[in-house]
Design brief:
- This protein is an all-alpha fold.
- It contains twelve helices and no strands.
- α5 packs parallel to α7.
- It is elongated and about 55 Å long.
């Protein structure tokens, strides 16, 4: 809630500084996606990408919950900007990654591969969710989707090529292909994509270990001395308990 308020405040500052983006403040929540798409559509070729970024940041800042609808509206009217809009929005509201991916790809299916690449560059650890979401709405774009993942996440490129080669040119389902890729890359490879350093790396605390098993206790050497009670026996040197003399 606090993060959303901060985002909205930052967006408000930018809106006040830009008359063009300030037009978004006059739109209702229902009108916001269409107004955002209108602003992007009016941009010239030289400023189109930056305008898309600015508009998405401002619109999502005003209404974070509308991020998928904002991206969808922009993608529908300006398909070439679908990847930029989706990648910009998902950084602001990463918890909506699946909805944003589906919205962008549904509105601009011809940009499926580019949408996957742009979003995976923004959130590489979520490559599987992004690819699966786009594949669900554009099922015929398997090759483009996998190519987008490979371009955005270089650690997976060789494994993706290996999976495609093993299928003799046919495209398996994206989900199945990426499952095979994960098996090839292994746990440590996936950890580096997620930004997690393996616990064996220098600088990290050692893993907890169990108790050390040592040799069995050795009985004391020497001949034990038997003391006869009441007999006034003498305790050998070194065998006493440190009692003070009476």
């Amino acid at each position: 809630m606090v993060a959303a308020m901060v985002t909205g405040a930052n967006a408000g500052d930018k809106l006040g500084a830009s008359p063009t983006l300030g037009a978004l403040t006059t739109a209702t929540s229902a009108e916001l996606p269409a107004k955002a798409a209108e602003l992007v559509g009016k941009a010239d070729a030289k400023t189109l990408k930056q305008t898309t970024i600015d508009v998405v940041k401002a619109a999502v800042g005003l209404n974070p919950a509308a991020a998928p609808a904002i991206v969808s509206s922009i993608a529908r009217t300006s398909p070439g900007m679908a990847p930029t809009a989706a990648a910009t929005a998902v950084v602001l509201v990463p918890n909506q990654v699946v909805f944003i991916a589906k919205s962008a790809a549904t509105a601009a299916p011809s940009e499926a591969g580019a949408i996957v690449e742009a979003m995976c560059r923004a959130l590489p650890a979520d490559y599987q969710m992004i690819a699966d979401a786009v594949a669900a709405v554009v099922p015929g774009a398997g090759r483009e989707i996998l190519a987008g993942v490979a371009a955005a996440v270089p650690q997976l490129k060789n494994a993706i090529n290996q999976v495609l080669a093993s299928d003799q040119g046919s495209i398996p389902s994206v989900s199945m292909a990426l499952t095979q890729v994960a098996q090839i890359v292994g746990t440590e490879g996936l950890a580096t994509i997620a930004g997690v350093v393996p616990s064996t790396s220098p600088g990290l605390p050692p893993m907890p270990q169990g108790p050390t098993v040592g040799p069995p206790p050795t009985p004391p050497s020497g001949t034990p001395t038997v003391i006869n009670p009441g007999g006034g026996g003498v305790i050998p040197t070194g065998g006493g308990r440190g009692y003070s003399a009476p």
